[in-house]
Design brief:
17% helix; alpha+beta
Length: 65
């Protein structure tokens, strides 16, 4: 799949372009972390008698480590 994505990129597809880039610092570590996580979802169903049930939920979690 990665190869297919690279073929869709404009420009040349060299071996250098195929190497994933690092997103962290070598030897580094996370001392603290804080953030907000938002999640939501829902769904519906209908039973054999034609009664429809609908459920929707969402949560926000604020966290710090």
């Amino acid at each position: 799949m990665i190869a297919a994505l690279i073929l869709l990129l404009p420009g040349r597809a060299s071996a250098e372009a195929m190497v994933p880039r690092k997103i962290c610092i070598d030897g580094g570590k996370v001392e603290t972390w804080s953030g907000t996580i938002n999640t939501s979802g829902g769904g519906s169903a209908t039973d054999a008698n034609g009664v429809q049930y609908v459920k929707s939920e969402s949560r926000i979690v604020n966290a710090a480590v």
